[in-house]
């Protein structure tokens, strides 16, 4: 048991993480019951991001158990603070989980599976999920600023709106609205919102949610979006795997979503396979890989938990930050 809780890895005694193999992590499930069916898991997975019942049992159930314990502890601290302040009984504020990682790494599947599992714990019946895509600047504004080729980079988001959203959620305001993004039209949908009304847990998923803001030169205090997170997850994989998954997904989308008459990418359905493959490689190397290296990967050490995927999309290693 000591070896499991303190697994030997490298000689860096100051490393802030405890690293677990897949088998070591799976044993931390303890007696957590499986609350999802194989059919539900199939519905939760994204295109080109396979996930099995065994994967959920080995990785996601221990993770949901850990988060349930963390949420319960945070709720206890909230009540203790209320007693200390002799304050009137207030509704507890949402526990916010940030989920970051590269394009094509499988963030959407991870977020949806985690949401479904956490909602089945008795102390967190209401779990909402919001993506940062809705906070992207509209295409018209990106065109105006010359940022269409840097969509998904930190500067392509409405940073003030992002910060205001998470601050309002953490302040317990209700209801709070988040804009909706359409991957079909590749743009924010004007006047369309999702309403978040004081959930027990909010999962906030996006490429750059762990990204710190540039520090001002005038000495003013600047909060980061991640300052409002209670827990954060980084979904990790080697560059070569991310490349392969991105290109494979692009080619599959040519046969599915890209064929929608409303699709921003419909033109790619008229390309030959060779032309489409070349375009996918270009988009990866000039946009997504650059964003990964410059902005996303450098935030990995800020995460509370790092899930490392192998070539098959299965998570092979888990690193948990020491408290």
Task: Record the SSE blueprint.
Layout: H1 2-5, E1 17-21, H2 22-26, H3 38-44, H4 53-84, E2 95-101, H5 107-118, E3 127-131, H6 139-145, H7 159-170, E4 176-182, E5 187-196, E6 201-205, E7 231-236, H8 239-253, H9 273-296, E8 305-309, E9 315-321
Parallel strand pairs: 2-6, 2-7, 3-6, 7-8
Antiparallel strand pairs: 1-9, 4-5, 8-9
Describe it for me?
This protein is an alpha/beta fold. The chain has a single domain, classed as Rossmann fold (3-Layer(aba) Sandwich), CATH 3.40.50. The chain is built from 9 helices and 9 strands. Strands 1-9-8-7-2-6-3 form a 7-stranded mixed beta sheet. It has a two-stranded antiparallel ribbon with strand order 4-5. Strand 8 (305-309) and strand 9 (315-321) form a beta hairpin. Helix 4 crosses helix 5 (107-118). The protein is globular, with a radius of gyration of 20 Å. The relative contact order is 0.16.
Query: Roughly what is the average pLDDT, rounded to an integer?
Result: 91
> What would you call the shape?
globular
Give me the CATH fold name: Rossmann fold
Question: What is the CATH class designation?
Answer: Alpha Beta
Tally of structural domains: 1
Q: How would you characterize the largest beta sheet?
A: 7 strands, mixed
Question: Which oligomeric state applies?
Answer: single chain
Q: How many strands in all? A: 9
Q: How far is the N terminus from the C terminus?
A: 19 Å
The radius of gyration computed from the alpha-carbon positions, rounded to a whole number of angstroms, is 20 Å
Q: Kindly estimate the percentage of residues that lie in beta strands according to DSSP.
A: 15-25%
Going by CATH, the architecture would be: 3-Layer(aba) Sandwich
Fourth CATH level, the homologous superfamily: P-loop containing nucleotide triphosphate hydrolases
Question: Treating each run of at least 4 consecutive H or I residues as one helix, how many helices?
Answer: 9
Q: Spans of 5+ residues with little confidence (pLDDT < 50)?
A: 1-14
What class, by secondary structure content? alpha/beta
Please estimate the helix content: 25-40%
């Amino acid at each position: 048991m000591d070896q499991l809780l303190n697994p030997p890895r490298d000689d860096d005694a100051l490393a802030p993480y405890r690293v677990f193999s897949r088998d070591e992590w799976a044993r931390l499930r303890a007696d957590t019951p499986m609350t999802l069916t194989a059919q539900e898991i199939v519905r939760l997975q994204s295109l080109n991001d396979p996930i099995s019942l065994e994967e959920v049992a080995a990785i996601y159930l221990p993770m949901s158990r850990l988060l349930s314990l963390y949420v319960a502890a945070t709720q206890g601290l909230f009540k203790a603070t209320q007693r200390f302040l002799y304050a009137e009984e207030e509704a507890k504020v949402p526990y916010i989980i940030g989920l970051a990682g590269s394009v094509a790494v499988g963030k959407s599947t991870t977020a949806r599976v985690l949401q479904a599992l956490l909602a089945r714990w008795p102390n967190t019946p209401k779990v909402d999920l919001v993506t940062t895509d809705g906070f992207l600047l509209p295409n018209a504004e990106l065109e105006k600023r010359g940022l269409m080729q840097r969509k998904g980079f930190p500067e392509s988001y409405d940073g003030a709106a992002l910060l205001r959203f998470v601050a309002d959620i953490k302040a317990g305001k209700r209801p709070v609205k988040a804009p909706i993004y359409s991957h079909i039209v590749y743009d924010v949908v004007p006047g369309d919102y999702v309403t978040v009304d004081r959930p027990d847990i909010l999962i906030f998923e996006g490429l750059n949610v762990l990204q710190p803001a540039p520090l001002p030169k005038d000495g003013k205090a600047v909060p980061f979006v991640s300052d409002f997170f209670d827990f954060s997850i980084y979904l990790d994989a080697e560059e070569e795997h991310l490349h392969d998954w991105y290109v494979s997904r692009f080619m599959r989308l040519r046969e599915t979503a890209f064929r929608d008459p409303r699709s921003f990418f419909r033109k790619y359905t008229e390309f030959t396979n060779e032309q489409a493959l070349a375009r996918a490689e270009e988009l990866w190397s000039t946009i997504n890989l650059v964003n990964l290296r410059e902005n996303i990967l450098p935030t990995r050490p800020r995460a509370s938990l790092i899930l490392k995927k192998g070539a098959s999309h299965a998570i092979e290693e888990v690193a948990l930050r020491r408290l």
